[in-house]
Design goal:
heterodimer, A: 515 residues, two-stranded antiparallel ribbon, 49% helix, elongated, B: alpha+beta, 27 helices, globular
């Protein structure tokens, strides 16, 4: 006791080293503030660092506590009595009956921890402190504004051992597995590890608070659609608290969208989805009605209708190749795209999630190349001229063509604009194709590449999450392109005969008629 | 068609083009043939085929005898170790004989090359070509990558042991203009090869290989030739250092390649008495041991191999454990130098790692022939592997004290502030040179020649070496750069402590020696002493102001980079002749001495005149070299640009050359000679402690706290285990 007083007395003359900690703790920090204060435990080979850096402690949830609030007061004596070295502190000592921290439900956490794989395999010697550093402990999952901060902090806790070969080897005899190797099945590994916590796949989500029931690796989530679907597991884990906070602050919007995350298949907007179904349904209805009456008109055609007067070479080989490759890719992209957007856990729609990812990426890249082929080919051969509209009188011409499709076609009237080699498109076609090829396709291609390499996307644009906006643009453009495809295939039947346009696009020869 | 063609050929334009083409072709071809000669003419160096008397072909019988002899002696040493416990000497000898006749005992030899040479029929060592017969390429293991094959000769030529310099980045030196040497912009070839330093007193070209006529007392008036020069430690046996590699795009001539001495590092039975200067019809060079005995006993380099050369600058020539000093030469014996450069010996009695039987390469882990120096250093020395860390922590971790007591834990806490060397190098050799005056030589009776005068030698703390903050970098003139992490406003050693000789004891010692010396000369003692007691007194007021500004603007920022710890540094200053036409606030261009003239006549100015008449020094003072490297060199030196006024006039008078001490004390790292027990707490944490906290930038208040720590009541009784 005497030495304690004398130590304390001397210390009153010493100004705080950084002023970042509480007065009574100054005495402790004289030694424990030295960053390399440590000892090597010779039996285990582990280095035990005994320092606490004030800057770490000052951000911690425990920052209002004095050292002796948790550690024995007898530590104030120097040299420390040897008996104190075996002091046994447990979190429950304070937190079992602390009303302020009841929301964490420490008892349940401790119970879950007891069932976790660490305690099961390593026994009672594995304690809270093997993962958690009490002096710098921070709460993140509940309070972080940015999901990725919580992810980084929480993952650090796991990676301290599982990413550190020396530390790992000091705790177990097992061979240290490389994380990339064990997660070989996970595509976009780095992206996942930045946006999802280890816990989200490796723990039991049914636990209260942050789940401490770490499952053995055999039970970890390996099925993509567990997270990438409407009923995403993430709502129970990573976004458990986030959604609650945001919803209460920002009102009823899919709050996760406005966060720094986009999860393919899970991020959905109910209203947008509904709208897309309605529009699609409407289009099918219109096309269906149109087809019914058009079929009637075809039946009423006279036999002289289908005599060709000659052939002209309209579509060179490169153009036809481009067109059909495009068609196939569109189909692949639409099918895989729909699978990703509407992924669900039971019964994959159309094809598996993982397969859909691969097909979509590969087709997207091929589409880019195909588009480049089209773009360059157009310039070299001069075919681009087909796409250049004559502005003068354009509305009249568009109206004329529309009138034909709406009325004239049912009366078997001749097409108002004859197709020639120089003008292969009618005005409506030209405007549509111009938009499709030179606006929509570039947009979907560029946004697609952005989604393939998300690090290139702006973090924020006009207050909304850049990644989400890109995905939105991509999906909406995709939707309109799919609409186009259905319309395009249907309108292809409005050639001189139902199959004449298809034949022409296959062999390149357009039949000329003079009636 | 034909007529057209003819007219084209005949046209004037074609003729002119053909002439130009012809001239260019001739120049190119000439360059191929005469490139080497051109370099030799330009730089004044010589390249000839090198022959060695020690390279002798053995007959079959001689070979067998040699092999038997080697194995016999190796086994005898082993047998001695095995029978070390036997008390009676005669019985012991008998046991040794029995062992030597035991087949299983004789079978294993560590000299694997005996059987290789035997099988390959090699009966003469002809130099590198013999080694390259099998070792044309070698596998280099780089940690973290698969092993790769390199061309052995290229590997050696591009290593610092051959080149003594590099043109690349990787120097831990910050020029006085604030730029890290060769980090950005034009890269110049720098290193020991062209670094003027007051310890050797000469340049590698002017001090390469010299034969000195001495008249030692013991010879009773007879002349004894002694060998001296930088070339004794160079692994090439040529007449000059690796000059070609310094020039842009220059190739090392075949003769120089064949002059490389593989055996000096690899042989376990190298006869050091073969290392002496020999004079042949072309010039002077160093001899080598090319006997088959040396060749056949090669292994990976062991500690002694390195120490044959490196103990000279560590423990020093006078160190009793210096093995090279015991074999000075069959003829033209090598000169020994009493003063030592770093004064910290690597030997079993002096250093724990040596006592543990460790090799140099256990810490300085090589990759092929590239040996890392470590990423911290104050002197301007090239480094083969600049990124590779050589540090105590590599093996001892940042918790090196492991006796599991409170004291150990507290000592581990100090690792953040103090380098291991600070506590574990308690003293240097007493031969450690602090002040050396080349300009006032004196006659040494024992050696029979003139030698530079060492004004102060000491291995004591705060005289021979002291403590400075260090972040790993040094200035262009070897001054430690660092800052006090807790208080970075007042620490400015280049304007302060590094310009003074501190300590009453040091000053007293120096004064005694000065009085001794100056009895014979006609010099004012106080003036003379003031120049090294306060080196800044040698600067004019303008130079002083300029120095202050440069230190504040360029050096202080560099001090605050990185992480600094307190390290021990050996101090050094020397009085040399400087070309004051190329002077800056940190020093002037040091001029070399020709060893022969210096040692024989004791007339330093004559030695300077001879040395700077060497063609390569003349070239240094001409435009091509100025552009190629000297301007950059001077910028790092803090002196702006290089002035090409040659300091020797046509009628042999030195112009603008005066004697000066360096304007600040050089601080060299000491890292070897590690003692098992470190310093005790009270050596620093006491009112009369050895660490001057104020000088290290602590406030007076904090320094007092550190001297009167309340914890000392407990720790003062702590005594380190021996």
């Amino acid at each position: 006791m005497k030495s304690f007083i004398s130590v304390l007395a001397m210390l009153l003359f010493i100004p705080a080293l950084t002023g970042a900690f509480n007065e009574p703790d100054q005495a402790c920090y004289r030694c424990h503030g030295m960053p390399t204060l440590s000892m090597k435990d010779l039996s285990s080979g582990k280095i035990r660092n005994l320092s606490i850096l004030p800057k770490d402690a000052s951000n911690s949830v425990h920052k209002f506590l004095y050292c002796t609030d948790c550690h024995s007061e007898d530590f104030a004596e120097f040299p420390h009595p040897k008996a104190l070295y075996s002091e046994n502190i447990s979190c429950l000592d304070c937190h079992e009956d602390d009303p302020d921290t009841n929301f964490i439900q420490f008892n349940k956490v401790y119970e879950a921890f007891g069932k976790s794989v660490h305690v099961q395999k390593l026994g009672d010697s594995f304690s809270c402190f093997d993962c958690h550093e009490m002096h710098s402990f921070q709460l993140h999952a509940r309070v972080s504004k940015e999901v990725q901060d919580a992810v980084l902090y929480d993952n650090h806790t796991c990676l301290n051992c599982h990413g550190n070969e020396d530390k790992f080897n000091s705790m177990t005899d097992k061979v240290f597995p490389g994380l990339e190797a064990t997660h070989y099945f996970l595509p976009h590994q780095q992206l996942h590890w930045k946006n999802v916590r280890c816990l989200d796949c490796h723990s039991d989500p049914e636990q209260p608070g942050v789940s401490h029931l770490i499952l053995p690796k055999e039970k970890a989530v390996k099925n993509c659609v567990e997270c990438h679907s409407a009923n995403s597991r993430l709502a129970q884990t990573l976004y458990k608290f986030q959604s609650t906070i945001d919803r209460s602050e920002q009102g009823f919007v899919n709050a996760v969208i406005l966060n720094n995350s986009y999860v393919i298949g899970a991020t959905r907007n109910y209203y947008l989805n509904m709208l897309s179904f309605v529009i699609f349904g409407l289009m099918l209805f219109v096309l269906g009605m149109h087809g019914y009456f058009y079929a009637g008109a075809i039946r009423r055609r006279t036999s002289s209708h289908s005599h060709p007067a000659g052939k002209e070479y309209f579509y060179p080989l490169w153009l036809r190749l481009w067109h059909w490759i495009n068609a196939l890719l569109f189909i692949a992209l639409i099918i895989s795209g729909l699978t990703l957007q509407y992924a669900r856990v039971e019964g994959d729609p159309l094809i598996g999630f993982g397969t859909a990812i691969t097909i979509h990426n590969v087709s997207g890249i091929t589409l880019t190349l195909n588009y480049l082929l089209f773009f360059i080919g157009n310039i070299i051969t001069g075919n681009y001229k087909q796409y250049v509209p004559i502005i003068k009188g354009i509305f009249e011409r568009l109206f004329l063509q529309a009138k034909f499709y709406a009325m004239g076609i049912f009366k078997n009237e001749p097409h108002p604009f004859e197709t020639t080699i120089k003008k292969k498109f009618n005005p409506l076609q030209q405007i549509t194709y111009l938009n499709i090829m030179y606006i929509l396709l570039p947009v979907i291609i560029i946004s697609g590449w952005g989604l393939l390499f998300p690090e290139t996307i702006l973090d924020e644009f006009l207050g909304a999450n850049g990644l989400f906006l890109t995905a939105l643009v991509h999906t909406v453009t995709g939707f309109f392109l799919s609409l186009f495809m259905f319309g395009h295939i249907y309108l292809a039947t409005t050639g001189h005969t139902v199959t004449s346009n298809f034949k022409a696009m296959l062999n390149g020869w357009h039949e000329v008629h003079h009636d | 068609m034909n007529d057209n063609f003819k007219s084209i050929i005949k046209s004037k334009r074609t003729k002119v083009l053909l002439y130009i083409f012809g001239v260019v072709a001739i120049i190119v071809i000439a360059l191929q043939f005469f490139y080497e000669d051109g370099i030799e003419w330009y730089t004044g160096v010589i390249n000839e085929d090198l022959t060695y008397d020690t390279s002798v072909e053995l007959t079959e019988g001689e070979f067998r005898n040699l092999v038997n002899d080697i194995i016999y002696n190796e086994k005898k040493d082993e047998a001695k170790k095995v029978t070390a416990g036997v008390g009676d000497e005669l019985i012991r000898q008998e046991r040794i004989q029995i062992l030597l006749n035991t087949p299983s005992f004789r079978k294993e030899t560590k000299f694997q090359h005996i059987k290789y040479f035997d099988k390959a029929g090699i009966r003469q060592y002809e130099g590198p070509s013999t080694c390259l017969t099998c070792h044309e390429t070698m596998q280099v293991k780089v940690p973290g990558s698969p092993p790769k094959d390199v061309n052995t000769m290229d590997d050696i030529i591009n290593s610092v042991h051959f080149r003594f310099h590099q043109k690349a980045t990787g120097f831990t030196t910050i020029g006085f203009d604030g730029r890290q040497v060769n980090e950005k912009g034009r890269k110049i070839p720098v290193g020991k090869i062209d670094r003027a330093c007051g310890i050797p007193g000469s340049f590698s070209w002017t001090g390469w290989a010299a034969l000195i006529k001495t008249y030692p007392e013991s010879a009773n008036g007879k002349e004894v030739l002694r060998s001296e020069g930088c070339g004794q430690c160079h692994i090439g046996g040529n007449y000059h250092p690796a000059t070609e590699t310094m020039l842009p795009d220059a190739k090392v001539p075949e003769s120089a390649e064949q002059g490389i001495d593989c055996l000096i590092c690899h042989s376990q039975q190298y006869d050091f008495n073969q290392k002496f200067v020999l004079k042949d019809e072309y010039g002077m060079r160093w001899n080598q041991d090319r006997s088959l005995r040396a060749a056949i006993t090669v292994t990976n380099p062991e500690a002694d191999n390195c120490l044959y050369c490196h103990q000279h600058n560590m423990g020093g020539d006078a160190f009793e454990g210096n093995k090279a000093a015991k074999s000075l030469g069959h003829q033209n014996q090598r000169l020994l130098h009493e003063g030592s450069k770093r004064g910290n010996a690597f030997s079993p009695g002096n250093d724990v790692h040596s006592a543990a039987g460790m090799n140099c390469t256990d810490c300085h882990r090589p990759e092929g022939h590239k040996i890392p120096r470590g990423n911290k250093g104050t002197d301007l020395v090239a480094n083969d592997l600049p990124g590779k860390i050589v540090s105590c922590e590599n093996c001892h971790t940042y918790a090196p004290h492991i006796s599991n007591s409170i004291e150990s834990v507290m000592l581990n806490g100090h690792v953040e502030r103090l380098a291991c060397e600070t506590c574990h190098i308690k003293e240097l050799e007493h031969t450690n040179v602090v002040l050396r005056d080349w300009t006032n030589p004196h006659w040494d009776k024992e050696e029979g020649m003139y030698v530079p005068t060492d004004i102060l030698r000491s291995g004591e703390i705060n005289i021979g070496f002291t403590f400075y903050w260090f972040n790993g970098n040094g200035t262009f003139l070897a001054n430690a750069i660092g800052s006090n992490p807790s208080n970075d406003t007042v620490y400015n050693p280049l304007m302060d402590r590094m310009t003074k000789l501190g300590g009453e004891k040091a000053i007293r010692s120096a004064r005694e020696n000065v009085l001794d010396l100056l009895k014979k000369k006609n010099i004012q003692v106080d003036d003379y002493m003031n120049a090294f007691l306060n080196t800044l007194s040698q600067l004019s007021p303008e130079q002083l102001k300029r120095r202050e500004d440069m230190v504040r603007e360029k050096i202080l920022p560099a001090q605050k980079t990185g992480e600094s710890k307190i390290y021990p540094f050996k101090l050094f200053n020397s009085r040399m002749f400087e070309d004051l036409g190329n002077e800056g606030p940190f020093g002037g261009m040091i001029l070399p001495f020709d060893y022969q003239v210096y040692y024989e006549t004791g007339k330093p100015l004559d030695a300077v005149k001879k040395a700077i008449s060497h063609p390569i020094i003349k070239r240094m003072y001409e435009l091509p070299f100025k552009e190629y490297m000297m301007d950059e060199f001077m910028k790092y030196f803090g002196a702006g640009e290089w002035k090409t006024e040659f300091p020797l006039t046509k009628d042999g008078k030195l112009k603008n050359v005066e004697a000066r001490w360096m304007r600040q004390y050089g601080t060299l790292m000491v890292n070897h000679g590690i003692s098992k027990a470190g310093r005790t707490c009270t050596e620093c944490h006491s009112p009369d402690g050895i660490m001057n906290f104020e000088e290290l930038g602590y406030t007076h208040q904090r320094a007092e706290e550190l001297r009167k720590l309340p914890e000392m009541k407990y720790f003062k009784n702590f005594v380190t285990k021996k």
